[in-house]
Amino acid sequence: MNGSHGSVHPVEEIPTTDVGDAAPVIRMKDIEGMPGTRGGLALRCIQLGFAVAAFSVMAASRDFPSVSAFSYLVAAASLQGLWSFALAIIDIYALLVKRTLQNRPIVSFFAVGDGITTTLTFAAACACAGITVLIDNDLDLCSVNKCAQLQSATAMAFLCWFTTLPSFFFNYWSLASR
Amino acid sequence: MNGSHGSVHPVEEIPTTDVGDAAPVIRMKDIEGMPGTRGGLALRCIQLGFAVAAFSVMAASRDFPSVSAFSYLVAAASLQGLWSFALAIIDIYALLVKRTLQNRPIVSFFAVGDGITTTLTFAAACACAGITVLIDNDLDLCSVNKCAQLQSATAMAFLCWFTTLPSFFFNYWSLASR
């Protein structure tokens, strides 16, 4: 078997191609905003803030138990808040022990979780937006209902969704690019 | 030139590595559901069908001009229908002339377009769902409004969104994995 090692020239070329293959994986690990980075932790904190704001403003409103969409917003914001809080803790742990969270099962789990929570939050925000627009513009009933409160809870939910999107896209991108 | 074909053995090994390198690109091209494939065309036709159904059912309802969310559903379903129709035409062209649509600017354009239309359709469906649930469950006004019609238009919009999602994810995946 060792006797055939004389013409080793073509074999030398293969590692050069291998390094080219591994390069994108290293690049992906560096992007701020992915799990286990400072950017990722910042995103989670902002999400948590907006989720808590949407939850509190809607839960404080008089109308929320009587309208399904408002109750749903409260539920979706709580779920989003809990998810972002859990992921923020994981990010803090990863930053403290300097561990990367870039392995396939973890990133898949984060991508699926982010996909579900972001869809639920967006659905709740849209349902509430539909109803607040109905009350405010179409029926002109803002004198009876506290429109400002409902609208600000809806806006908070939209902002929460908007800050969850980058987390989701980073995870999905990282999953696809390996 | 033909005289040097005697010791062709080491040269034969390099293409094997090259094929290994190129394999993911070829694999991505083969996934059914991506632009320029039969699966992609089928997805576009289903999207178009649901968008047309949502548009027609909602536009035929008596309530649609008076409620913003219902008008928005009509607009979003038209946009989705036009987009899916245009992409279906492009898919048919690509299939007829046997061209692949896997280059970066085209896939980016499709991914962004799908992302926007799918978000708008989902937002419209959620807003209408919020209002139909308000009318049906919370206020019990289904005797006055044609709930079945509104609910079926909403369901069609949700199905339309659901069939747009795979197109979006295939394009985004294909973009990330090159």
TrEMBL record, chains A, B:
InterPro entries: CASP_dom, CASPL-5. It is a multi-pass membrane protein. It is found in: Cell membrane. Residues 34-162 form the Casparian strip membrane protein domain. The chain crosses the membrane at residues 41-60, 72-97, 109-135, 155-175. Keywords: Cell membrane, Membrane, Transmembrane, Transmembrane helix. It holds the Pfam family CASP_dom. GO terms for cellular component: plasma membrane. Its main location: membrane. Belongs to the Casparian strip membrane proteins (CASP) family. Homodimer and heterodimers. This is CASP-like protein. The lineage of its organism: Eukaryota, Viridiplantae, Streptophyta, Embryophyta, Tracheophyta.
